[in-house]
């Protein structure tokens, strides 16, 4: 269902669904401070998780507690009860309420800077569509460049090529070493790549910087890279923080990028799928951004365009108040959750590395609620297909869900690769996550499963099991 903008009615919500004030302003009433959530209550909130599976892969799909799912169901029933009233009376003020809460979480300067979209991939398409139009309309010159990290998320890479390359732009990748020992290595490669663009006479129109790379997982110094972009004359900076909100601190004013996106369903406990796109108000591109699905709100600003794209399920975007209530049940709120997740995943990563005789893929300060742990070299991971094969084996035989990253060994003439305690080159890494529902036994099961494979002489090179269809991790 589409409806013209003139029919919107921003009336006060009278349905008791926790939407807050009709115009989206946050309530000034003091909030109660009950006792922190108990371990038993956490188990109950996530009782829908399969108890047989050690899920140390929150990063791919996130998780949603039962109380938030219940809030979503109330919104869905409200829509079904009287769809017209929902669309014309409740939807927009309730979206505004959610956007207002996101504004506080990310320290945005103004509500008009915050749009809610389906996911970070949608946000990327909005930005790259704008870049493509800039080439087509002659604002950018053929051969001008877009710079991205080598470890940018695969779907985002494809989106860049789909929009930018076809419009006449040139794509440049920043090579990044892995494993890493310091953020300085990232900064040095980024500076070097921008220098090569400058020396080659290419003007960099957009830099795409991951806040947290997906595979391998590394926290990138986005504030410093954004500052370097300003120094080097890069037109615009887009930070892909798909994993960021609820995982690391996100302060969009401090980072200073033109555009910033993050999923709310990965680490902020929202149901799938919802993300925000922040557009800095001072960016010249802000008025020229449009949702790729064109509907009646086209031309009225991205927040309104994104909030009215036909008859669809908007409830993942409406439960942000319920999510905020959930995280406030934890000691220290969201910051406390982030801190404890980080501390625990580092502890578990070190435990696994010590047991397997390997190492962490980056120092703890470059990790978040996810960390990379080297796997024993004798497992013989020699391709991405092998990594998927091992992942499927752990899922099917051991009921453990964990992403596996393949890191190609050094080529002739390059520095020697990292080795395990036996001297074998490490070419595989497990990306482990920690979220509030995880327990130590989840990681012990992974530890013991890999130990059994090593003890039994398993090798991907010798394995002839069926290889599953390739699945990209988020």
From TrEMBL:
It comes from the Eukaryota. It comes from Musa acuminata subsp. malaccensis. This is (wild Malaysian banana) hypothetical protein. GO terms for molecular function: carbon-sulfur lyase activity. Transmembrane segments: none annotated. Keywords: Pyridoxal phosphate. Residues 1-34 are annotated as: Disordered. Residues 1-12 have a biased composition (Basic and acidic residues). Residues 95-280 form the Aminotransferase class V domain. It holds the Pfam family Aminotran_5.
